[in-house]
Amino acid sequence: MTLRILLTFTLLFTLNLPATAQSAFDAWRQGFRATALAQGITPQQFDTAFAGVSPNEAVIGFDRFQPEFSKPIWDYLDTAVSQSRIREGRQNHRRLRRLLRRIENRYKVDTEIVTAIWGLESNYGQNRGGIYTIEALATLAYDGRRARYGTRQLIAALKILQAGHVEQADMLGSWAGAMGHTQFIPTSFLALAVDYDGDGKRNIWSEDPADALASTANYLRENGWVQGQPWGVEVVLPQGFDYSKADINNRQSARYWRSLGVTRADGGTLPNYSEASLLLPAGAGNPVFAVYKNFRVIQRYNNSVSYAMSVGNLADRIAGGGNFITPWARDAAELSREEIVDLQTLLTARGFSTGGTDGVAGAKTRTAIIAFQRSLGLEADGFPSAALLTRLR
To answer: What domain count does the chain have?
Structure first.
């Protein structure tokens, strides 16, 4: 792709700015130019990278978009671990088995997990993003809401260009600046991407995914991946289990959980790997998991329970494993952010402090829910359900 074609493509996503707004962006760019040059970016590199760049309407739209309802975990998994993604994952795992095995031998990260991240991040390279990274990050840095993130990543992106790892016309990615087959942000690229094929470039954008897959393995290794251990296993809790112990931050030995009657859903013994936490992503009556260190390592790639579960489950399915044993209670209604604010307000008013009313059901809200549920003799799973909100109202 030539630079002219890239700039034409970029303009399709760009605001038709009034003169005053354009002047404001130009003033910001001049100020940022001084910052970039102080960080070692050459004047020529800066001016070339910023040729034709303006605030991008699509980037601003994505950044502003806040869905009213969060997606239930089962809906997230239905999309992330679809039959087509499992099938293509197995095909790609077979097709690249020699490359993936060499990467595993070098970085000590299991082949299936690298393949699964590739699948989640870009659908095995099919959706790597089409927004010019410099423009995306300049928009975030200028727009203000995520200025700190945008500025830091933009400096890193300019350093990547200056080092020659990618041609400017090929530096495309997501609206938030994530790039390549496995969607590295620029600072993560500088810190952990590798030149696996030895051509002098860490080219995660190439049609050949070798550098990207090896970079992902290196990222996981550097964050503590333990080869050969699972991300987690599905478990069954005994009758009357104290759900307050099912906390992602409550890490205990397998022996401890066994002493409380926790067993594998398939009837096996709970494996004795690193310390495990119990995870109830959708409350009582839904699948429960004992998650290990590798689950937390996946979260370093994307700090989302749904994401980490999807990567782990997709990796298991690529390896030939089956789906979860316990079915999801798919008729349960998901609360909107506004409803969670309402729930937090009502709990606090009843003397069960949630530490604020931010619309996010975090640890303090969960603790308050458990206390409220116990006060009524209910099953205290700490989950912010529609039924709970109805009872509070």
So the answer is: 3
Cβ-Cβ contacts under 8 Å for 355 (sequence gap 6 or more): 362, 364, 365
CB 348 within 8 A of CB 354: yes
Residue 349 lies in a domain: yes
304 and 238 in a single domain? The answer is yes
Q: What is the pTM of this model?
A: 0.89
CA-CA distance, 75 to 70, in Å (whole number)? 10
pLDDT along the chain (393 residues), means of 10: 42 51 88 97 98 93 74 92 98 98 98 98 97 97 91 98 97 97 98 97 97 98 97 95 90 96 93 92 93 97 94 98 94 82 93 90 85 87 87 89
Where in the sequence is the domain holding 297, given as residue range(s)? 232-318
Of 321, 235, 248, the C-alpha closest to 286 is 235
Contact of 231 with 204, CB cutoff 8 Å = no
CA-wise closest residue to 215 among 103, 305, 325 = 103
Question: Are 313 and 286 part of one and the same domain?
Answer: yes
Same domain, 264 and 383: no
CA distance 166 to 159: 11
Judge if 157 and 24 occupy the same domain.
Answer: yes
